[in-house]
Design a protein that fits this description.
single chain, mainly alpha, globular
């Protein structure tokens, strides 16, 4: 794969990469950094890609690893006084479903994103998350139950 083909494949995966990073990381700048680092890492390890048709899946796996690395490094506590002095962010205009998905535990949220939003199959989702298919099914089932309960409780106009 040459530089132009690599760039074309990365551009085609751009939306997926952003969605995965945003699902795992809260900060916009962390998302951008993680995506950039994942792309650089993929370029440097391009020789390890065995099957070019799975480039996007391979790149998403690299991004997930990069996000997990950032999450491990970022476990920082904030003093109570500083937390209380920080104004709450203005709520953004998201749909009830999007907000409910965003409130899921990270393990459930990433499974929902990959399977339902990005359209990966159960097998692909399991490979990306490095877990058995049965675990993916369990997480999707748990997420559906939670979402159903939360959305049922929403006050509808």
């Amino acid at each position: 794969m040459d530089k132009d083909e690599f760039a074309q494949q990365v551009r085609a995966a751009e939306g997926t990469l952003y969605n995965v990073a945003k699902t795992m990381l809260a900060s916009e700048s962390d998302c951008e950094d993680a995506v950039s680092d994942a792309i650089l890492s993929a370029w440097l390890r391009l020789g390890s890609l065995r099957e070019p048709q799975y480039f996007k899946t391979w790149l998403v796996r690299i991004l997930i690893n990069e996000c997990n690395k950032r999450l491990r490094r970022k476990k920082i506590t904030v003093p109570y006084e500083e937390y209380m002095d920080t104004p709450a962010p203005e709520p953004e205009d998201y749909s009830d479903l999007y907000r409910a998905v965003a409130e899921l535990k990270p393990k459930l949220r990433i499974a929902v994103l990959l399977f339902y939003i990005e359209g990966y199959s159960l097998d692909e989702t399991a490979r990306l998350l490095k877990i058995p298919q049965g675990t993916v099914k369990s997480r999707l089932n748990a997420a559906r139950k939670i979402l159903k309960e939360r959305l049922r409780d929403e006050d509808l106009p």
